[in-house]
């Protein structure tokens, strides 16, 4: 169950109006979002990675899912799957049945009523659809054209691929379902792993980071964490093929909220004072825009958010491993 405060969903309150034409191009992503809500995937970073979007475009997809009536907010501001959303998830990914549910959702969506004829076959080119959007909504031409592109892509998806020749062999393609299933599984594993990491002691979290560095080939790995660590929790060294030795400083932040610029500045200060060659800031959450901005242009500083950290753990066999289908599994299972 996804908990989203009303303050963060101001735009959602005015969804079902003609001017709120969707701007989320991929209906397949909307399905993934509905499935994520059903499965309880709510970690911000894992959701963005699952849908392969940034925060702004995630809001577009959430808005589109509400417009289509496949998810809704309850009185507590939590996002829930509707009965229509459940019917959508009961169909196969990319199947004719899925397209039929999407067509029904479009037909029921009040905000899309002015475009009902377009979705039932009216021939409209991009320019004509854009002009209609401008007239109906008051949007600028550029914005109206972007929204028109979305409607065209939706209709193309709902119409589906060209029908096979009569008497031809029709075979279903399981690849989209398998890929989507693995993606959701991995998103849930990442969320569960990050929740578990949030519950360990700070020294334990630093030890896991140290184990990862060893698995990545670093040597002389040492934990320094503590109140007087000077912004460096773990130090290690790397020796290249020429025998050159370089030192790395790591700060590990077991945080639920976004890591702010203060910690980037703190690590950069230690990096320069102690003449490290690399610096790494690892967190269980993500980074604020200010933190990302401070790190920009610092080629020797890397920021690793929660989902990326879990990927690195699995890739190097620390706590997790990657299965034969690309799925994340507990190490030893």
Largest sheet entry: 5 strands, mixed
Distance between the termini: 28 Å
Mean pLDDT: 87
Percent range of helical residues:
40-55%
Helix segment tally: 13
Structural class: alpha+beta
Pfam families: Mrr_cat
Keywords: Endonuclease, Hydrolase, Nuclease
GO molecular function: endonuclease activity
Protein name: Restriction endonuclease
Description:
With 333 residues, the chain is an alpha+beta fold. It folds into two domains: 161 residues, no CATH class; 130 residues, 3-Layer(aba) Sandwich (Trna Endonuclease, Chain: A, domain 1), CATH 3.40.1350.10. A hairpin with a 5-residue loop joins strand 9 and strand 10. Helix 11 runs parallel beside helix 12. The longest helix has 25 residues. 34% of the residues are buried. InterPro entries: Restrct_endonuc-II-like, Restrct_endonuc_IV_Mrr, tRNA_endonuc-like_dom_sf, Type_IV_Methyl-Rstrct_Enzyme. Keywords: Endonuclease, Hydrolase, Nuclease.
Topology:
Blueprint (H helix, E strand, L loop, with lengths): L1 E2 L23 H13 L4 H8 L3 H13 L3 E3 L4 E4 L1 H7 L6 H13 L7 H4 L6 H12 L3 H19 L15 H25 L2 H14 L3 E5 L10 E6 L5 E9 L7 H13 L4 E6 L5 H7 L5 E4 L1 H10 L4 E3 L5 E3 L3
Parallel strand pairs: 6-7, 7-8
Antiparallel strand pairs: 1-3, 2-3, 4-5, 5-6, 9-10
Helix pairs in contact: 1-3, 2-9, 4-5, 7-8, 9-13, 11-12
Distinctive features:
333 residues; alpha+beta; Trna Endonuclease, Chain: A, domain 1; 2 domains; five-stranded mixed beta sheet; 14% strand; elongated; disordered N terminus; Restriction endonuclease; hydrolase
């Amino acid at each position: 169950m996804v908990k989203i405060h009303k303050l963060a969903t101001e735009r959602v309150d005015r969804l079902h109006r003609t001017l709120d034409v969707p701007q989320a191009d991929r209906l397949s992503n909307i399905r993934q979002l509905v499935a994520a809500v059903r499965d309880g995937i709510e970690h911000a970073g894992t959701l963005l990675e699952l849908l392969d979007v940034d925060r702004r475009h995630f809001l577009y997809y959430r808005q589109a899912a509400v417009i289509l009536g496949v998810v809704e907010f309850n009185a507590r501001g939590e996002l829930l799957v509707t009965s229509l959303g459940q019917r959508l998830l009961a169909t196969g990914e990319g199947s004719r049945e899925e397209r039929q549910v999407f067509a029904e959702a479009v037909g029921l969506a009040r905000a899309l009523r002015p475009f009902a004829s377009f979705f039932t076959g009216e021939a409209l080119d991009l320019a004509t659809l854009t002009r209609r959007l401008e007239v109906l909504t008051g949007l600028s031409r550029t914005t109206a054209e972007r929204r028109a592109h979305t409607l065209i892509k939706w209709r193309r998806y709902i119409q589906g691929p060209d029908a096979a020749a009569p008497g031809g062999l029709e075979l279903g393609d399981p690849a989209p379902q398998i890929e989507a299933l693995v993606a959701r599984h991995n998103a849930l594993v990442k969320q569960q792993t990050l929740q578990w990491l949030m519950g360990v002691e700070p020294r334990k979290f630093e030890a896991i980071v140290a184990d990862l560095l060893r698995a990545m080939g670093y040597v002389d790995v040492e934990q320094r964490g503590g109140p007087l660590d000077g912004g460096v929790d773990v130090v290690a060294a790397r020796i290249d093929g020429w025998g050159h030795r370089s030192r790395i400083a790591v700060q590990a932040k077991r945080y639920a909220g976004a890591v702010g610029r203060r910690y980037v500045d703190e690590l950069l200060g230690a990096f320069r004072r102690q003449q490290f060659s690399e610096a790494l800031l690892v967190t269980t959450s993500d980074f604020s825009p200010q933190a990302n901005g401070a790190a920009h242009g610092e080629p020797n500083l890397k920021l690793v958010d929660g989902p990326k950290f879990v990927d690195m753990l699995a890739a190097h066999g620390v706590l997790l491993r990657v299965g034969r289908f690309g799925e994340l599994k507990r190490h030893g299972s």
